[in-house]
Amino acid sequence: MSKRSSTTSSTAFAVRCNAVGVKIKFWKRGWWVFVHHEGRRKTKRVGDRETATRVAQAIREKLARGELNLGTASDSQTSQTLRAYANTWLATVQHTLKASTLDFYEANLKRHVLPTLGERR
User: Fold this and answer.
1) Which of 56, 14, 12 has its CA nearest to residue 37?
2) What is the pLDDT of residues 71-108, one digit of tens each?
């Protein structure tokens, strides 16, 4: 008799919805929904297998109708540079951070990150 029961198998069970790359998987003691769309992957942990199947089906339908704004590969070519994003982000978080933290972030971006990566999209 095997010590391992069939309900607690260590192998993952996956159901794939072929049309748009949505699958469910039992992983790390829970059911997860994986969405693969145009080179991007998003994951979300959901309750049980039935819920995961329903969520995967709903995501698949929304993707087919174009209701999810996941972006496309061509969007990354026209998106803003890291420098522009960093400036926008700093302006957004400046009211939630201490002045010393904001100075630290600005200095490190200016000295280390932006000279090398600032023009990347």
Assistant:
1) 56
2) 555 555 557 888 998 999 999 999 899 999 999 999 99
Distance, CA of 13 to CA of 67 (rounded, Å): 28
DSSP 1-32: --SS-GGG-SS--EEEETTTTEEEEEETTEEE
Strands of 22-81 (E only): list them: 22-27, 30-37, 40-46
Domain ranges of the chain: 11-69, 77-117
Q: Residue 38, Cα to own-chain centre: how many angstroms?
A: 13
Tokens 């990347």 sit on residue: 120
Angle at 63 between CA 26 and CA 73, to 5 degrees: 100
Q: How far apart (Å, rounded) are the C-alpha atoms in residues 67 and 56?
A: 14
Residues 59 and 62: their CA atoms lie apart, in Å, by: 5
Helices (H) and strands (E) in the chain, counts: 5, 4
Length of the chain measured in residues: 121
